[in-house]
Amino acid sequence: MREMGTEERKEEKRSFLIAGFFSFLFAAALLFGARLDSVENVDVRDWRLWASILVLTAVFTALVRLLWRLFDLAQTKVAAGKTKAGEKAFPGKRMPDKIAHVLEWTDRHIVLLSFVVLFLCWLPVFLAVYPGFFVYDAQDEYVQVASRTFSTHHPLVHVLLLGGMVCGVHKLTGSYNLGIACYTVLQMAVVAGGFAFLFWYLRERRISRGIRLFGLFYLGLFPTVVMFTLCSAKDALFTTALLLLMICLLEMGAQERFFTSRGWRLLFVLSGMAMMLFRNNGFYAFLVMIPFLLFLQKKQWRQILFLTACAVAGCLFVNVGLKTALHAQSGEYQEILTVPIQQMARTYKYAPEVFTPEDREILYEVLSKEALSLYTPRLSDPVKYRFDNAAFAEDKAKYGSLWLRTGMKKPLIYLNAWFMTSYGFWYPDTVINVYGGNTVFTFTYKDNSYFGYEVEEPGVRESKIPWLDEIYRRLSLEVWKEKAPVVSWLFSPGAMFWFIAFLFTWMLNRRRYEIMYPFLPVFLLWLTVLLGPTYLPRYVLFLWYGLPLFLGMAAMKRHLL
């Protein structure tokens, strides 16, 4: 048996460490998540928990390394088995000319065909749920425009786009539903355009037709993608902008021509701006991404600095301009304080004795007894919405000091308060039921709140295909899909995250650094949602929208870049 040389041993050790680190985190996620799901608490002092994690880590490390080898083998066989253009996979036979011409024509018109196929896939669902899913802050954004009273609670660009279209079409036609439908169709067109650009790019990078076809019908038919594409929330537009930015980052890492192409640089700036304009956490993630890009592109640091500065400046210019022009009110702190608010509320519920009489007085200034009594582990909204922003703004240091000294007394309560609003993003078997018992306009959430499904006022559901509407109602509000083996992971934010993380570690193990840039904004955004009010698929929609791109990245060969 041949002995390994020094370099081989180093590579083996490196591979083992990468697989081991991934496996440890995955094992911890499974065991932590199972306890949070069942008893809403993780006792990190339990040695049996850590012993179980170590055992699972050893098992998963061996499994991950085996899967890596299978991936490498499959990629090698695919590369070796590729035939010349126009040939079948059988020796001595050529593909029929008609089929070859069709495939050639299809590749030349990939953007148009992708756009049309996606639109046709989504159209029946649009008719079934007509005028679209008008939900998740939709009514609030519409009211801002209708009443001419604006705030920065929601991105002003989206408020004007959604509310302006609903109000404008209603003024012309007298129909709110038509306004909602017009916005939905516009969003469908924008998202389809972003996906069509993705498939053009994959073709340019010579990714196989098989992966492209899978990606096309996955994005056209998979329910999670379709639901949010037809939803009025800002998530679809934000994620489409993010997808375009990810493509730019892939081009930046893999092709030096990015820095000489005016089109690619312009797309980078515009997609970065759009991402930041449609979500505040997009702004924070983009800012944190800048030093990473400067480090990765040392030779081009001046251009990176210029392009990112243009994107940030453009975002700030638009936001400040709209805020000034619309006299938008600001000063809300509860969105960025959602985790501290939950931590204080959980401590008040489970360990009220840690608050001295003076501490209670300070706490009641920003959170009343009634607000604190509404604490729910998986959702911060009931408490958060009753947070007194004005009182907090008068003396932030006083309330910050209260939060800090309380946390020093009960750190495990603080830790579990944070886990309970975020574990759905990293535990694959989470059932999304954060709104259970809440009554909205036309239904009450029962055992599942995967998707809103609602048409909020002033809209009303006018289904043209009732049986398909019923299918999407069940997908949105019933728990069966999250209980089915294997299928449940396709709908799970936690499972999707770990699949993307697995692809990342595989590429890291193969030293494919030049094509790993798109992981940067994805992981940074994922970190920001861990600090959010709850776990919902809408906050990590990029895990589904970006899947064809990540699969394409995994299939890329160095000599084809």
Brief sketch in words of this structure:
With 561 residues, the chain is mostly helical.
Structure, described:
This protein is mostly helical and about 550 residues long. About 70% of the residues lie in helices and about 0% in strands. Helix 7 packs antiparallel against helix 8, helix 11 (about 260-280) runs antiparallel to helix 12 (about 280-295) and helix 14 packs across helix 20. The radius of gyration is 25 Å and the shape is globular. The two termini are about 35 Å apart. The model is unreliable at about 85-90 (pLDDT under 50).
Number of helices: 26
Query: Can you write the helix and strand succession as a string?
Result: HHHHHHHHHHHHHHHHHHHHHHHHHH
Question: What integer value in Å does the Rg equal?
Answer: 25 Å
Shape: globular
Please describe the biggest sheet, giving its number of strands, its sense, and whether it closes into a barrel.
Answer: none
How many DSSP-defined strands? 0
Roughly how much helix do the residues carry, as a percent range? 55-70%
Derived from helix and strand composition plus strand pairing, the structural class reads mainly alpha
Question: What is the typical, i.e. mean, pLDDT?
Answer: 91
* Poorly predicted residue ranges: 83-92
Percentage beta strand: under 5%
Compute the separation of the termini in Å: 37 Å
